[in-house]
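BACKBONE GEOMETRY TOKENS
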Amino acid sequence: MPHDALNGPKALGAFLRAHRERLTPAQAGLPGAPRRRTSGLRREELAQLSGISTTWYTWIEQGREVSVSPLTLARLARALQLGTAERDYLFSLAQASDPESQDAADAVSPALLESVQQLRCPGYLLDSVWNVVAWNAPAQALFSGFLGSDPAPNLLRFMFLHPLAQHLVADWPERARRVVAEFRAETRHFPHSAPVREQVEALCRASPQFDTWWHGQAVMAREGGVRRFRHPQRGEVAYRQQTFYPAASPALKLVMLLPGDDAENIDTQPQNG
């Protein structure tokens, strides 16, 4: 199979052409015209709808080595009326980040919220800046004094700014260092995100330790493994962490803490303190 069959400028051009040819003028809100040789849009029509020159669009569709900005791709995606999966595929072909994707990616469906509540083990849902957007009773019991108490819980702020973190997380220095490296790895998905940038800047100002580790440039994939906690009522408890990424919300992370063979599970009812 040729190298350009699945990626590169030619693959991008072929994708755009196929979707241009299947979108009719009526679907695009353009007046119909007699004696059209094709039922789809002409190149000049799509260029006009996208606010770019016909010549520039033609070069993109021909697979020439030209630089296509994320904003141009976003205009083309809107003009072609691409669905979510199609739009994601378009940006992946161009090796670009969608400037409009974060809000949609962070959206939490009612079904996903219900799934978190149905878990029997501690479970919580993080968005792209690691706000804890949902959690269940076992998670609240484990993170007593944080979840259910903080009006806007955020895992990064908890690890570096909350007085409970260094006592609750048994191996805090190693875990906190790894959390920074994992967050840096995930920021590649939203390189132009204002919320991500603001989160990093705020933590660098508030936490010298975060600032040091962030500027250390370490990058690590988010992995499972044993997570140990020193709970004020239960003593030391251990879990095996698993992280899942919901297909319909790629910026969200569902974190599950599964009791290990040597772990003592914690009560499922929230506790105060």
Remarks:
- The beta strands are 123-126, 132-135, 225-231, 235-244, 253-259.
- The chain has two domains: 3-99, 104-259.
- Confidence is low (pLDDT under 50) at residues 262-273.
- The chain is about 40% helix and 10% strand.
